[in-house]
Amino acid sequence: MDYRYIAGYHRILKMIDSCYSMGPFDRSEEVITAMRDFILSYGRPLPHNHRQKTFPNGTLVIEDLQRSRDGGQYHCVAENNRSRTARRDVSLNIMAPPIVEPFSFASALSEGKRATVTCVVSSGDLPIRISWMKDGQPLPDDLRGSISTVNEFTSTLSFSSVSQIHNGNYTCIASNPVASRNHTATMIVKVPPKWRTEPSDKSVVMGQPVMFDCQANGYPDPVIRWKKSSEGSKTQFQVIISNENVQILENGSLIIKEASKEDSGHYMCQATNDVGSGLSTVVYLKVHGMYT
């Protein structure tokens, strides 16, 4: 019988089935559980240090497994009340779990740049299998990532051109026959604002509502600000502060509930997120007089 365990872990080696139930005992013969020994392959009875404990029910406990001292062949010997004995050999194979070295993406990634990270398993017994995930799921095809196996303990994940869809948590998972370990790094790609809905000129009858839509994508999320030209100027703008009649909605839209002649003029929508110079566009609102 072969057992595999992780070096350095507390493990209980349950030899009950190996020792208690083994022949050549007949079912009519009573097995005396106290008459059992665990013997190392070189013939030294156990226990022989503080990490090893044996119990009458056929259990051997070894704490803090050490490959050089605990690995190897063990023999379980049982004797019944008729002085008949039986023996079973057990192989204890102690393996080291994978250790994944920390890695990280470049901190100044922007749209269109290349990105590469390397996952190195610095220790652990072979064979080692390395896989990658994004946000806890297999890598989506639309990311167009390239995975290169450098050797049996090193894997590289590369992207030739990153964008906002690449933002997220990337995990390298290393597994061998006894354990699985991982490390996660976050990719942040800064993307300048791009129009999702660019506002356009409007006209409205006095006293009627009017709304300008203004939305932009980017990372971090762009902040939308509205400004209105100063009277008689097309270059000087002042920030609009929401009031009972004029409101800036959470989605960036500007709404005027009851348009008046004073609301006529040029309006500027700005989208900024500290990436690049941002976006802005100027539109004109024409307010018509009411027909009588």
Automatic annotation (TrEMBL):
Organism superkingdom: Eukaryota
Cellular component (GO) terms are: axon; plasma membrane
Write down the PANTHER family for this protein, in alphabetical order.
BASIGIN RELATED, FASCICLIN-2
What gene is this protein a product of? Dscam2
Q: Which UniProt keywords apply?
A: Immunoglobulin domain
Which organism is this protein's natural source?
A: Caerostris darwini
Q: Which InterPro entries match?
A: Ig-like_dom, Ig-like_dom_sf, Ig-like_fold, Ig_I-set, Ig_sub, Ig_sub2
The Gene Ontology biological process annotation of the record reads:
axon guidance; dendrite self-avoidance; homophilic cell adhesion via plasma membrane adhesion molecules
What protein does this entry describe? Down syndrome cell adhesion molecule-like protein Dscam2
Annotated GO molecular function terms are:
cell-cell adhesion mediator activity
Please report the stretch or stretches of sequence annotated as the Ig-like domain: 18-91, 97-188, 193-280
